[in-house]
Amino acid sequence: MNYSERFSEVSRAMGSSMIRELVASTKNIPDLISFAGGFPSPRTFPKDILSEIYSEVVKTEGTDVLQYGQSEGDSLLKTELAKWDGYPELSLDQSLITVGSTNGIYYYTRALIDPGDVVICEAPSFLGCLVAFEAAGADLRGVPLDDEGIDLDALKAAVSNARAEGKAVKFVYTIPDFQNPAGITMSYQRRKNLIEYCLAEDLLILEDNPYSRLRYSGEAVPTIYRIAQNEYRNTDLVMEIVSFSKILGPGMRLAYAKGNEALIGKMGSWQQKVTVSPDCVTERVAARFLQKNLMDDHIAGICDFYRPYLHKMLDCLKSEMPDYVSWTKPEGGIFIWMWLPEELNADELFIQASQHKVTYIPGSKFYPRGQEKFNCLRLNFTYSSMEQIETGIARLGKLIKSI
Ligand SMILES: Cc1ncc(COP(=O)(O)O)c(C=O)c1O
Q1: Which of 74, 203, 303, 322 has its CA 20 to 30 A from that of 395?
Q2: Bridge partners (DSSP) listed for residue 326
Q3: Ligand 1 lining (C-beta closer than 6 Å)
Q4: Residues of the chain with pLDDT > 90: what percent?
Q5: CATH code of the region 3-45+297-402
Q6: Is 176 exposed, middle or buried (0-12, 13-18, 19+ CB in 10 A)?
Q7: What phi, psi does 34 have (nearest 5°)?
Q8: CA–CA gap between residue 101 and residue 107 (Å, rounded)
């Protein structure tokens, strides 16, 4: 049977994950050092305590949590999360638990996007979300970043251009803290300016926040959601989605979204259709983890663990890279972004790098289709050993200098 002719239009347009294919293409190279993936270190997973809590939860609450659960998420977990996150006043209707932030963002998109609607994203941005927007038929417009985050003049131009074309601009998608892939954190002032602009122009903001708590130095910047609430008395403009993938482990598939009640309701309806509910056992385990007051110390431990790896990679880049290469210097997160001279193409360099037994993700993969830049790449520093960082960055530096 020829299935390709039977697929829906959306499925036909869907490609396989370019990043997965790239990573797979290097899988069998012996002694390859990979800075490509976006994986947290398994050494940060709180395995012992989680195994105790899983067992306890199933034993003592199994009757409840092995049953079908609430589509909008476990009320106990939502209450615990709201307290932990500093929003004790948040009502249950203003938040939703999802199966990782990927699902939350998918539901947000399904709730808001009709084919042809414009979504503004940072360029570069997280590919996993860009493909979700595209699958919903969104017209994606990328806006560059500078050291302080999304470039507001470019954002304004993108919005006016889209409107001049008669398009509806639905939301701005941003990863303000330790952005994936660029490692940039949006400044406080830029967050305020973005809020003011979006309020004036009646645009929504989707704040994707998997990394803000992974800060290894410097001062935390309040989330866009918090600034909107505290300084503009607005809880409707921004939806913030917090993922626990880099905190508890991506295999738990746990995230929570907060924002406008009606929108949360629609997202909950989507969740009911797609997954019925998140995994009720995992939800209750996370709730008990929070009730036992374990989260903050656990996160502090992850930060202590990652800090030397970030410093190691930054030190190695400083000593191994030629001066015509630049890179971001994040204070947290899991990625560093590198700019090569205009004439160097990181997609082409990828093949040579693999031959030199080091790999990364070419930056072009993080741009909306047709808006790619090729003289850039992403490096992950949380999955390699210190020795691998040293050797891998030395290999990459030697290769770049040789071209
Ligand atoms: C910016 C960003 N958003 C979303 C995700 C997906 O997170 P989750 O595992 O919660 O689906 C990631 C994971 O790498 C990410 O970097």
Answers
A1: 303
A2: 339
A3: 38, 100-102, 126, 128-129, 175, 180, 208, 210, 243, 245, 250, 255
A4: 89
A5: 3.90.1150.10
A6: buried
A7: -110, 125
A8: 10
